[in-house]
Each structure stands twice: as C-alpha cells, then as structure tokens.
Amino acid sequence: MTIEISATTRKTQGTGASRRLRLANLVPGIVYGTGEAAMIELDHNTLYFALKKEAFHASVLTLDLDGKKQSVLLRDFQMHPYRQQVQHIDFQRVDAKKKIHMRVPLHFINADVAPGVKTSGGIVSHVLSELHIACLPADLPTSISVDLSSLALGHSIHVSDVQLPKGVEVAGHHHAVDAVATIQVPRGHVEAVAAEAAAATEAAAPAAAAAKPAAAAKPAAKK
To answer: Is 138 helix (H, G, I), strand (E, B) or coil?
Structure first.
C-alpha cells in the first residue's frame, strides 16, 4: 500500500519564518534530488503520526506537492529536544531506474520455537535492528524477516544467512560474517551457577580444614 502525504510550497524562508510556521502547527521541510530543490510546509499533526509508523521510514512515499504527485524517500527529520514537535523534515526524490540505499528494519520471527530458547532456556540477543540495503525503488521492502527457528544456544545468524527479497542486496558497512542475532545463556543463570559453585567451595572448606589436624595427629608407622 502506497503511503501518501500532502505538502504545499513554502513561500518564506529563514529562522523567523520557520518559527512562525511552527506556531501555526506547520512543519518546514525540503524536497531535493532530481531537479531543483523545493521548500515545503506540511501539517504538523498529520506528519507527527505518520512518523510513528515504521513503514513511513522505509518506503517509497507519494508526496502530493501543490496537487502534483512525486515519489520520495524520507531522508531526515529533526525533533524538538523535549517537546513532541517535528522541527524540520527532508525528502529525496527517487528515480525508478536508479538504485536507492536505505536502512530497513529487521523483524525477528519464530524465536519461541528456536532450540536455543525452547529446549536450552537461552535468550535472543538482537545484534542488528536494521540492515543497510540497495535496490530499485520498486523492490524496496518495508522490512526484512529473520527466521530464528533453527538457532541453537551459543550460535548466531549472520548477515549472509538473511533471506533477502528479490532484487535486494546488502550495502553499507555490513560484512557477510557480521552477526545479526545470537542465543545466549541468560546472565542470571550464569550468576546462579557461579553462586552455587562458590557456596559449594565455601561449604567444603571447613571439612577440609578439619581433616588436616586429624591427619597430623596420626602416629607415624613403625619401621
């Protein structure tokens, strides 16, 4: 499903103009890429709730600018330091024939049936939460699933193990051997085992100390 958002051309620029827009519940922004950059303004509340949707961050969006629609990607946005207010937003136009680079969220599935969890009591550690990919705009997935159903305790799923959708390739700084997720022994379990071992050692110490005087008092055998 295509996500669409509306904007109008911003006629004024500068810090003062942007401040007045925000007071009017509008968000200043920019659209750049192929062609000239366009200064825009958007309804704050509509944009604020759109940003809460995961797909809005990893989809080719349809931007309706003054009644003319164009395909764009969300590239950046700034939030107020402590208010729930969007301060500025950047979109980039996309060319259907050129590959784009995006960070796409990872969705981990079947963790509850993974041997490392179900039979060994381990916990899943997500090393990566997103993957940097490259693909044509039409092939851009909103997320990528990572199947943990065969993962055993102490083992990892690596970037090379992730099943990528057709037309999608790994990009950025990722390497094939980089871990995506692992199943580890719970920290509390490790600490409990260590505590039990320490208690056992402490309990054995008095018995060992009592045995030493008894051995010393034993008379030497006659020759």
So the answer is: helix
At 63-110, the pLDDT tens digits run 999 999 999 999 999 999 999 999 999 999 999 999 999 999 999 999
User: Among candidates 61, 13, 19, which has minimal Cα distance to 40?
Assistant: 13
Secondary structure of residue 152 in the 3-state scheme: coil
How would residue 12 be classed by pLDDT, with cut points 50, 70 and 90?
confident
Residue 87: which of 178, 153, 152, 15 has the closest Cα?
A: 15
The stretches of the chain forming alpha helices (DSSP H) are: 15-23, 44-51, 54-57, 115-118, 187-217
Q: Is there a contact between 5 and 47 (Cβ–Cβ < 8 Å)?
A: yes
Instruction: For residue 38, list its beta bridge partners.
Output: 31
Helix (H) / strand (E) element for 76: namely strand 68-79
Question: DSSP of 204-221, one letter per residue?
Answer: HHHHHHHHHHHHHHSPPP
For the whole model, what pTM was predicted?
A: 0.78
Burial (CB < 10 A; 0-12, 13-18, 19+), residue 174, is middle
**C-alpha dist (Å) from residue 108 to 70, 124, 141, 180, 189:** 33, 10, 15, 10, 24
| Average pLDDT of every residue of the chain | 89
Confidence of residue 128 (pLDDT cuts 50, 70, 90): very high
